[in-house]
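User: Can you fold this complex?
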Amino acid sequence: MIIKNARILTMTEENPFLDGYDIKIENGVICEIAKDIPVQCCEVIDAHSKLVLPGFVNTHTHASMVFARNYANDLNLQDWLFNYIFPAEDKLTLEDCYWFSLAAQLEMISGGTTTCSDNYFFMDATVNAAEVSGIRAQLARSVSGISDPDCKKLKEAVEFCKRNNGVFNSRITTTISPHSIYTSDEAYLRKVLTEAQKLSLGINMHLSETATEVNDCYAQRGVSPIKYVKDLGYFDVEGPLVGAHCVHLSDEDISILADHNVSVASNLTSNLKLASGILPMDRLLKAGVNVSLGTDGASSHNRLSLMNELRLASILFKGLYQDPAVLPAKDALRLATVNGARALGLNNLGTITVGAKADIILISTQSLNMTPVNDPYASIAYSSCESDVDTVIIDGTVVMKNREFTGVDVENVKYEVKKRTERILGGC
Amino acid sequence: MIIKNARILTMTEENPFLDGYDIKIENGVICEIAKDIPVQCCEVIDAHSKLVLPGFVNTHTHASMVFARNYANDLNLQDWLFNYIFPAEDKLTLEDCYWFSLAAQLEMISGGTTTCSDNYFFMDATVNAAEVSGIRAQLARSVSGISDPDCKKLKEAVEFCKRNNGVFNSRITTTISPHSIYTSDEAYLRKVLTEAQKLSLGINMHLSETATEVNDCYAQRGVSPIKYVKDLGYFDVEGPLVGAHCVHLSDEDISILADHNVSVASNLTSNLKLASGILPMDRLLKAGVNVSLGTDGASSHNRLSLMNELRLASILFKGLYQDPAVLPAKDALRLATVNGARALGLNNLGTITVGAKADIILISTQSLNMTPVNDPYASIAYSSCESDVDTVIIDGTVVMKNREFTGVDVENVKYEVKKRTERILGGC
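Assistant: Here's the predicted assembly.
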């Protein structure tokens, strides 16, 4: 496959912008970037009037939660989770989660996301959905001690990793995901850690999301959630480490994250909407912590647009710190691409370079909101809409072209989501 | 015209939600809302699977500034305005402003905005554009003392109002717009006030946008910008009063706004992006000030999506105040509709009621991001994309249907914008 006449935002330091170049893809990998590559019996994608960049990486979501989109609003996280979400989740089946995951993955792709990190349950259904949608995903069967007295679910999580890590030409990777410190006791968290160590996998967990979580941890243990899991040995595992949310952080917490190469999956919209707060972006970036972007589930966002997170990141901190030079468009785009790839330990991802995985999006500049462009980075960070994403390539396969999915009946997916939501939430 | 089978978010207190109703429109006005209205020789719009609500009201923009979209980013307002924007504006012609205004109006319409308040210059071009786009607009020739030593521009502004107030079946109204207190001296501001009084028109001006503006005002005059213009008599005029931005407000300022029925046009994205700050939404709403939403110009936003402002308003303050019950979806939608109409003194606008102007939008619920709906208000505030806006009716005329403009060649508009931008900004 060759992408012709591309205006490329490579997201590399050396050659950040290439105008009028072609990109050649073979076996899911970018094998050449040059002017006028000869076209020989291969698929050609015309990138005229489009901006070409690495696909967005969504480092924290729960795809199956689309059923609860806009269900139970305007509540704080603890109330929302324990009194509304957990009871509704008890009604979910494996087949529900297939359809919900598939809808979520398609929604993400349609907004330019090519990779997501997803932890939930019935994750075999999510793997099956990823086979169909074509999305790249790092998946975990989420576990928590309060709902796993006999460690059956932890065993499930381990088996899930063994069965699925590296499938679909390594498009699926796996990780270990204890939900949080407030849904597991110390003994359970130690068991989870042991399994991660045995598998040489990373850990992805909710950390310091709310003031309640942090205050309770100090009250019960005298330390912050981050210090607590660090002392347990969580940050000494081999695989990539992701702390989701990380809203309420002390300076010591930030030093720990930086020293142990723990990436942060910020979820700006979710944290605002659920009134959890705003993470200290300035202190995190200054300390050299790898900050990436996540959407959280559609139930707390309430949509799965990484582009929206990118837009919010690019404006929020300028206003909050009253400094217009904070997170310029190009840096904000790094959060959405290279930083996300690094967070998930996928180092051959997140840039347009020879040897990188061919996860590429083409963003049209033909809409009114993209006219005129003036600055390609700023036009994506500040002006683009999800509907400007024209073509999405993942692992060298075109999964969306001219905004049409190539291999899925979307109408059927939506039908299944609506029907199953009605059963679960009772015709909301 | 009849809209059939509508799920209506009326934005009224009494009957907020009507399911399966028809809306009959005659002479640009809603004349009946009932079930099963007979269809007799009239245009029928099928609202099946769509949410029907009043069009959004954008209470502060500068439409012609689309040419500077994503030009000169990451600067503070004063630097951006005086060193980049003002010099570029010197190159603008009347014809440029026609095409830029038209593009901006179409962009607004395509995201569900049916009314905008726009102050800039070459405003006759903006009136001509509004004739073509079909948008409802409250317009002003913006004036400032520093660029108007002989009051020629003020005279222009007055003549503009006389010529255009009430044209196109009252779709165009006019107002008086002194740019700000920092671009005019007191003598000039008094002259502007006199003209507003003579014309019995309202005043719409930038107020307390940055800390610099407020601090300078205190240093020079010992009072805040709001107290200063109040003491000049600005808030005693007959017409509607709009303070744009109002980011930095004392408690006294807020009391003045409330007591004098001055509406606030908040511009959340612009204020964040230009690092001006975040307006005190909690104190404003508590004091009963009428807060509405604006996009500002595309040069500082950098797009003209009121839906984006609605989304931002609905999440930002929950997170900032760490209270998830702040501005529930329905209240946020009020900012975008009824409050906007009230700000502009257009009291027959902003609700779906018999007797109201037929400014109506149909939002599709068929996209992945709107599936499932669960809660109609929340689905619009939190989950919708601009591309979900399917049909836009303004003053009883369908200006966009199935996302196609009914009376404009959009390709030509974009061509003109690109060509003219290249001349002005030099091929950015």
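Chain B has a mean pLDDT of 96. The longest strand of chain B covers residues 17-26.
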